[in-house]
Write a structure and sequence with these properties.
- By secondary structure, the protein is of the alpha/beta class.
- The chain has 2 domains: 147 residues, Rossmann fold (3-Layer(aba) Sandwich); 296 residues, Alpha-Beta Horseshoe (pyruvate-formate lyase- activating enzyme).
- It has 17 helices and 15 strands.
- The strands form 3 sheets. A 7-stranded mixed beta sheet has the order 2-1-3-4-5-6-7, sandwiched between helices.
- Strand 14, helix 14 and strand 15 form a beta-alpha-beta unit.
Length: 481
């Protein structure tokens, strides 16, 4: 689908809540697709805390924002300010508007639902022809939202791309890779230049707290050849020595992992690149660990979530067991693959006994890095409707309250419990929100995670212990709530 020859300036925007360590995958993928399909589009990617000045400097003909739920209100504020300065169409895409179409409103002109490459190209094609968006034409574009005659119009969902290997590699060249994203990296694996790669879209599992299915639909995988060629391109373009597989589950399916390992070794990449990625405990066994070790995987990130069988069954929809978690941690330790994970507190029905199970598991099977999260209902997740029914959330709420992380550890936390941990947070386990014993145990879990993380960073690089200690302290004690 070609766009006419007049140059059209498209600016794609991601508003930050905190400093990002990598460019936004969705925007770089959209940019690459549009540039591949039409050379008459000039694409600018803008990311930052308050990007209005940069957007204006790009002199756009059309602006596309992306946003998750937590950042939706902030993104909307930037869009409102922009609309006052420029009379150009504003688009909004990303997981939030996909999951919560009822939250669509001005100043946005069009919402893009789900996978956006083909949809955005159709929108740009229409705009390049008439410089406006007649409703009669918008209705023919699948996968969008818009308002016509004070009524929200939702067009049919666009079919998913059947073969994601046909997509061009993300347009990282439109972002400050060398100047920002590859600078001042500090990690315990000796990686100096770490870049991210998506090896799939979607996840075959359906955890109750995850919005991946609503954004990506069914899972689709890149081929091992596509992945390896992207890694080689990153080495050539940016001299990276580390790759983080950023998608939900790079170790599946098993046969693909075996082929990926073989290609990595055939290209001698296992001697040049250290790998990090997300995994699931139920897929970890001796064979898989051997493969990961051979391809030079240094770190796996799991969602262990809970050591209570009852709570874990609910969160993971009976797809993983506590024994799977124990086996995964033990095997990774044996194969010298460091482990990171999140544990979740605040599940409805979770008791002090359930939390104690998690605390005991953490002590017996310590990880190398642990984060503690609150079970948080985002639009599009399994738990969103139940939170709606008890009036904890709504489509027009203050989305900043949907913050999954507990407040950062402060010096005061080392000597006294903070009974205000859950202030201004949506907390689904309403029965225990003010239970002293329950809150004290959450406090102990946070402190245990903090000290285990601290110990790992001190032990992994003893020659740089002071630098690592200062780094961890600055991360843990900064931005305290």
């Amino acid at each position: 689908m070609a766009i006419n020859k007049k140059i059209l300036r498209l600016t794609l925007v991601n508003v930050w809540k905190s400093q990002m360590s990598m460019p936004h995958f969705g925007l770089t993928s959209l940019a690459a697709y549009i540039l591949n399909k039409s050379p008459n589009i000039k694409v600018t990617i803008v990311e930052g805390f308050n990007p209005l000045k940069q957007i204006l400097a790009s002199k756009p003909d059309i602006v596309g924002f992306t946003s998750d739920t937590l950042l939706f209100n902030d993104t909307k504020k930037v869009a409102i300010a922009l609309k006052k300065r420029l009379s150009v169409p504003l688009l909004i895409g990303g997981v939030h508007i996909t999951a919560s179409p009822k939250s669509f409103s001005q100043p946005f002109d069009i919402g893009v639902v789900g996978e956006g490459e083909e949809t955005l190209l159709e929108i740009l094609t229409l705009f390049s022809k008439s410089k406006k968006f007649p409703s009669i034409h918008l209705e023919k574009i699948k996968g969008i939202l818009f308002i016509s005659k004070n009524k929200l119009i939702v067009t049919p969902r666009r079919p998913l791309l059947p073969n994601i290997d046909l997509l061009p590699y993300p347009a990282r060249n439109l972002t400050p890779m060398k100047e920002v994203y590859l600078q001042k990296q500090l990690n315990p694996y000796g990686i100096k230049r770490l870049a991210t790669v998506m090896t799939s879209r979607g996840c075959p599992y359906h955890c109750v707290f995850c919005g991946s299915p609503v954004q990506w639909g069914r899972v689709r995988f890149h081929s091992p050849l596509y992945i390896v060629n992207e890694i080689k391109k990153l080495i050539a373009d940016y001299q990276v020595d580390g790759i983080m597989f950023w998608d939900d589950l790079f170790i599946a399916p098993y046969n693909r992992l075996v082929e990926l390992k073989d290609l990595i070794i055939a290209e001698n990449l296992h001697h040049r690149i250290k790998f990090i990625g997300y995994a699931r405990a139920n897929l970890i066994d001796e064979k898989t660990c051997k493969i990961l070790k051979e391809m030079n995987v240094k770190r796996l990130i799991f969602g262990l979530e809970s050591a209570s069988p009852k709570i874990l069954d609910y969160l993971k929809q009976h797809s993983v067991t506590v024994e799977d978690n124990r086996r995964a941690v033990t095997l990774c330790r044996r194969y010298q693959i460091t482990t990171s994970s999140g544990y979740i507190v605040g599940t409805p029905g979770e008791t002090v006994h359930d939390l104690q199970d998690t605390f005991d598991f953490m002590k017996k099977y310590p990880l190398d890095n642990t984060q503690i999260y609150i079970l948080t209902p985002y639009p599009g997740t399994v738990i969103w409707p139940s939170a709606q029914r008890i009036n904890l959330v709504s489509d027009n709420m203050d989305y900043s309250r949907l913050f999954v992380q507990l407040p950062s550890i402060t010096l005061r936390d080392l000597t006294a419990i903070n009974f205000h941990l859950l202030d201004n947070r949506i907390f689904l386990n309403t029965e225990y929100r003010y239970n002293k014993e329950y809150l004290e145990l959450i406090h102990k879990i946070r402190l245990l995670a903090f000290f285990q993380n601290f110990k790992f960073y001190l032990n992994i690089l003893p020659q740089n212990a002071l630098n690592i200690a200062n780094y961890i302290i600055s991360r843990q004690f900064s931005h305290a709530d």
